[in-house]
Amino acid sequence: MSNVQIKRPERWSVPFSESMTEEDVEYVLQMPLFAEGMIDPEQFGKRISLAGILKNDASLLKCHQGEIIVREGEWGNSAFFLLSGSVSVAVQRGNDSLPAEILGRSNIRQKSFIDILKQLWNGHRQVESRDLEKYSAESPSSRTTKEGTRVYLQDISIALDLEKSATINAVDFFGEQSALGRIERTATVIAAGDCELLEIRWQGIRDMMSKAPWLKLQIESRFRMYGLQRFLQASPYFEHLLPTEDRTPEDVERRNALFQNVLDDADFRSYGSYDKVEKFTKLVESGTASNLVHEPLIAKEGDYLEGVYLIRSGVARVSHQAGHKHRTVSYLTPGQAFGVNEMIEGWKTSRHADLRYSLRAVGYVNVIFIPARNFEQAVLNELMAREQSHSTFPDHLSSKSSDEIGQIDSGLLEFLVERRFVNGTATMVIDLDRCTRCDDCVKACATTHDNNPRFLRHGPIYDKYMVANACMHCADPVCMIQCPTGAIHRSMQGGEVVINDTTCIGCSACANNCPYDAIRMVHIRDEQGDLIFPTASESGTSAPVSLTPLTKATKCDLCAEQITGPACQQACPHDALVRLNLGTSETAAEWFNR
Questions:
Q1: Domain identity same for 209 and 279
Q2: Looking at the structure, do residues 388 and 322 belong to the same domain, yes or no?
Q3: Among 24, 59, 219, 536, which is disulfide-ready with 17 (CB 3.0 to 4.6 Å)?
């Protein structure tokens, strides 16, 4: 076979926007945000300079009235600095939001039944073959700026009348919470007139925050103002404080005051490192995982109960001291609370309450701490006054906040939490007692993905259960943290963690960071089966730079285009394989105990 050569991708080989020019960078640097020292170019190093971030991690956008900039519900990976003009923010009210047709949304194109049948014989014969034309310089960028691709509201005033709207003026920024938290956009942003924006993917925002302390402080304070309020309003613990039509103005005012007190005294806390991805599998293999010294302590067993902890993002372990070791009692995922049972017990008996368990961060965790006095006044007193009894509480206080799951075998639970499988929203679990090793699951995956399977039927085993090396589509996907180009991201529609093959530079950051060995680096070939090598450097010689062929990252995409869902699960003839959301303990327990 002959050697096929293309230029080796580098850190900024694929910029965020191919339309960003050196002139644009100079223009942006003259804007008040940079020229007046708010973000000082001198604070940046030579390797990753501010000009380099603007050139490669940013895009200069000129928008017109009615243009949709951000859609509520999309998965964000970029933030926006408003350089001139203003934008309108349409905040969702109740269960209503702007219709999908108005927002210009398009669902992932699912294959028809005929397309699915064609997969049986239309796949490439060569392993991991690629169409080289998509890597050419003429390839479209990941974010197109052509007028024909933009979506506008025909009547912006009528559309915004359906929503609660706010206005953002220059110089300000928005979208940073979604970008840095890897969460869904919480509002739709529309250009209120002609405006100019600087869009920066989250890797660039992260680098800028490290050199501009004021920006980091501003982002944290804005979370208190916007993100924290929205999070608490969505929590079942405080839903009774929201205004409803059947309440008197006096009652609404009183409840608003209680909620405002909670909001004012709530404390946003982070545990673990945002940028550090710990290879906890090594801790498990070395036998040091069970002492939990590697997990930051959030609340300690036996300490005086000072308040309630609400998990905003990440996974937290609830454990009990057992001799010199710790026994995992349960795990908590976003929206769940720690300390509620003790709070209720102390409130009922009017006696001091201590924590029965410890709470630790499994990786990187954000929590909202609600002081005891606020929780008692806003939740316990209010709800109990409505129940007229000290023995009855709503379900979310008596069951969902319960510290003990008690439904999953303790050894299995320890296994799932220790290896952090509980982070998965679509974890592939195989019942080995039912599995006949027929490999129909792997064959179905290969058929669906052009004869290239995206998982291995192999993985850690506990008792009769195996967790396969397949992408779990984590609630907090740490694989995204160090991707230099943003090639690995959440899909706009379903939130699946997917990889843009065109913008992947083969750096292996995602594969190295994935704690579950679910991402594979593969050598790519052309359609004739020849390995693809990088071209020579800018010297212009025709000799290969190295004898190492180019690699790309591949992983499970949860068969987002398949109308039947994950092919692996559908193909199993013995109901031995399931894609399980381990963040929902009740659902997981039901499957394990079937």
A1: no
A2: yes
A3: 59
Mean pLDDT, to the nearest integer, of 258-283?
74
Going from the C-alpha of 36 to that of each of 29, 51, 148, 449, the distances in angstroms are 10, 16, 36, 51
Question: pLDDT-based confidence at 13, cuts 50/70/90?
Answer: low
Residue 117 belongs to some domain of the structure: no
Using the predicted structure, report yes or no on whether residue 40 has a pLDDT greater than 50.
Answer: yes
Of residues 76 and 501, which shows the higher confidence score?
A: 501
Tens-digit pLDDT profile for residues 128-187: 777 777 666 444 333 334 433 455 665 555 555 555 567 888 778 898 888 876 677 878
| φ/ψ of residue 237, rounded to 5 | -70, -25
In a domain, 9, yes or no: no
Check pLDDT > 80 for residue 104. Answer: no
Token digits of residue 354: 């201590």
Global confidence as pTM: 0.69
Torsional class of 533: left (φ above 0), alpha (ψ -120 to 50), beta (otherwise): beta
Structure confidence at residue 491 (pLDDT): 76
pLDDT value, residue 282: 57
What would the pLDDT profile of 42-58 be if each residue is shown by its tens digit? 888 888 899 999 999 99
Residues 6+ apart with CB under 8 A from 267: 368, 369, 371
Q: Would 465 be classed as within a structural domain?
A: yes
Residue by residue, DSSP assigns 328-390 as: EEEEE-TT-EESHHHHHHHHHHTS--B-SSEEEEEEEEEEEEEEHHHHIIIIIIHHHHHHTSS
Rank 216-220, 324-328, 461-465, 503-507 by mean pLDDT and report only the highest. Answer: 461-465
165 phi-psi bin (left φ>0, alpha ψ -120 to 50, beta other): beta
Q: What is the pLDDT of residues 302-324, one digit of tens each?
A: 999 999 999 988 888 898 887 77
Q: Of 271, 410, 396, 266, nearest to 337 (Cα)?
A: 396
Structure token pair of residue 150: 């933009």
With H, G, I as helix, E, B as strand and everything else as coil, classify residue 591.
Answer: helix
- Tokens (6 digits) for 301: 């067993």
User: For the chain, how far is it from start to end, CA to CA, in angstroms?
Assistant: 53
Exposed, middle or buried by CB within 10 Å (0-12, 13-18, 19+), for 351?
A: exposed
Dump the DSSP string for 511-567. Answer: HHH-TTS--EEEE-B-TTSPBEEEEP-TT---S-S-SPPPEEEE---TTTT-TT--H
**Phi-psi sector, 302: left (phi>0), alpha (psi -120 to 50), beta:** left
Domain that holds residue 521: 419-592
Determine, yes or no, domain membership for 142.
no
Length of the chain: 594
User: Are the CB atoms for 400 and 448 separated by under 8 Å?
Assistant: no
Question: What one-character DSSP code corresponds to residue 221?
Answer: H
Q: Which residues of 251-277 are buried (b: 16+ CB within 10 A; e: fewer)?
A: eeeebeebbeebbeebebebbbeeeeb
Report the DSSP beta bridge partners of residue 70: 189
> What's the rounded Cα separation, in Å, for the pair 354 and 346?
9
- What residues pair up with 322 in beta bridges, in sequence order? 325
